[in-house]
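Reply to dn_fold:

You asked what the input looked like. This is it:
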Amino acid sequence: MYCSTRLSLFLFTAAVSALPSCTISPAEEKPDSPCICDSQTYLTGAVLFTQESAEYKALCLQAYNAAAARLPELSAKSERPAVVLDLDETVLDNSPYSAWQVLNGKPYSPETWVRWVQEASAEEVPGAGGFLHFADSLGLRIFYISNRDTSQLPPTMTNMEKLGLPQLRQENFLLKTETSDKTERRNAVRAEGYDIVMLIGDNLGDHSGRYDKPATSAERSQSAFEDAEKFGAEYIVLPNTIYGTWEGTLYNYDRSISDAERCRLRREHLAAPEL
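and this is what came back:
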């Protein structure tokens, strides 16, 4: 019995030691006291929701079902219809990269992101492939407007070829050159004589520049209500709880701030009742 108790205590201590370290400020009972854990631990729930929940899959399928239902009517109104899609978290699922961040306590970096892209192993976001083939069968031109760097085009195309996706010619891709704002690239599609009848993405900046920096969270929300009739019609939105402009607004778009400051700002933006 004594040995069993000691063994249980040892195992419990070992398990606790294996958890990410967490330093709490002296006023640890106060709700405004940040718990500064491993810098990527906060992503755990978001990544698990993406990788494990049936609800995430259902939301993606719902978005692409709505897009497919609307597309024939919208495309019939145009002589040169086009559909524009983002890539990351819209067509390609990069949650394994985010899982790597969590398990290794490493923030996003251009170097590790490039290594992930070069693997060309991202899976398809649920529903994306079926929709893209449907759009292709209707004769629409498909444009992939992504903020992947132009140097990442070859592995991106390789990845999408593995998934059997359509219209993978170089001219169908408009990747990032100087700015992450996609307005100019959307205008370039229109300048070629195409009518963009539908925009699909996980970030509202994929649909309109009004949602991009320097818009605040409140301003973005107000714009969403003003665009209400477009959602589910010409604007199709995919779920992404892992990252996006919505998070950038919490930090005032300042990428240089510390993990402690990011943690403080995340907590500061939580709306909670007095209980």
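The domain at 39-268 is CATH 3.40.50.1000 (Rossmann fold).
Hope that clears it up.
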